[in-house]
Amino acid sequence: MSNDLSYESFKERLTLTQTKIEALKNLENELVEKKRNEAKEKLLEEKSKGEDEVSKLKKKLIAAERANGVFQVPLPTAATAAEVKPVVEKAAPQPNKAAAQPTAVPAQKGDNNATAKKGGGKKKKAAGGAGAKQEQQAPAEVDISRLDLRIGQIRSVKLHPNAESLYVEQMDVGEAECRNVVTGVVKFVPIEQMENRKVIVLCNLKPSKIRGETSQAMVMCASTPENVEILDVPADAVPGDRVIVPGFEGEADAQINPKKKILERILPDLRTDNSCTACYKGKPLTVVGKGVCKSKSLKDVQIK
Question: Mean pLDDT of all residues in the chain?
Answer without folding.
Answer: 81
